[in-house]
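Complex 269.
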Amino acid sequence: MTQKVAVLGTGKIGEALLSGMLRGGWSPSNLLVTARRPERAKELRDRHGVEAVSNTEAAKHADTLILTVKPQDMHTLLDELAPHTPSERLVISGAAGLPTSLFEERLQPGTPVVRVMTNTPALVDEAMSVVSAGSHATEAHLALTEEIFNGVGKTLRVPESQQDAATALSGSGPAYFYFLVEAMTDAGILLGLPRDKAHDLIVQAAIGAAAMLRDSGDHPVTLRENVTSPAGTTINAIRELENHRVRAAVLDALEAARDRSRELAAGKR
Ligand SMILES: NC(=O)C1=CN([C@@H]2O[C@H](COP(=O)(O)OP(=O)(O)OC[C@H]3O[C@@H](n4cnc5c(N)ncnc54)[C@H](O)[C@@H]3O)[C@@H](O)[C@H]2O)C=CC1
Ligand SMILES: O=C(O)[C@@H]1CCC=N1
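Predicted structure with A1CAB bound:
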C-alpha cells in the first residue's frame, strides 16, 4: 500500500522534512501539507508541487500525520484533529517537550504515536532525529518513522524518558555551535582580521573538527591534546576557557534546556 503522509504546520522544520522526503524520492502526490496562512500554503504548493489542505482533510486522507507546530500551538491543533482522526493513523510529533501520552489522551484510544526530536541540519541532510515509541506504536510504525527521517540525516532510537535530554543535546545542539562560531568570529575582529576572513577561518575549523570527530575514531580529548603543543598557543587559550568555567557553563546550559523541555510538557508557555 502506498503511504500518504501529511505534514501539519509546515514551518522551518516541517518544510525541511518535506524537502528531504521529496529529495529522497517520495512522490509529491503522496504528500500533503497544511499551513495556517493561505500565502504560506501557496508558497509550499509553488515551491514543492505538493497539495495544501486543511488539517481536518489531512487527518481524513493521510495515513501518517507529522505534527510540526510549536508545542504551544499543539493543543489547538489537537482540538481540531481529534474528531477527524481515525485510530489507525500514525501520528508523529516533532514538538519539543510534549510526551506521547498527551497525544494518546487527546486522540482516539489506541492511536499509535511516535515522538521525534530532529534538528535544523535536516536542511542539508545532516539531521539527527531522535525517535521514541508511544504505548501503541509498533516496530512497523517506528520503521516508517525512521524511513521518513532518514531522508534528512541520521536517526537514533531512545526510550522516551531520554527525550528531554536528547532535545537539550541534539535538538538545540546546532544553536550552541553557531553561538560559538559567532563569538570566535568576534574574537577574530578583536585580533584585527576582516570579518569575512575570520568567518571563513572559523567555519572551516568547525568543519574540519567535525570531520575529525566523525571519522578519526579518536576520543575528543586525544584530538584536543594533538592540537595543544607544550608551551604553545592553544594551552593559553584553554587556560582562559577553564578560568571562565566554560565547561561548567555548558553543563548548566544543557541542563537548563532539558528543564525547559520538561516545562513544555507541563504546559508552561
Ligand atoms: N527549530 C528547531 O531547531 C527545531 C524545532 N523543533 C520543533 O519543531 C516544531 C516546529 O518548529 P519550527 O519549525 O522551528 O517552527 P515554525 O514556527 O517555523 O513552524 C511552525 C508552523 O506551524 C504553523 N501552525 C501553527 N499552528 C497551526 C495550525 N493549527 N495549523 C496549521 N499550521 C499551524 C505556523 O504557522 C508555523 O508555520 C516545534 O514543535 C519545535 O519544538 C524540533 C527540533 C528542532
Ligand atoms: O528551541 C526550541 O524549543 C526548539 C526545539 C529544539 C530546537 N529548537
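The chain has two domains: 5-158, 173-265.
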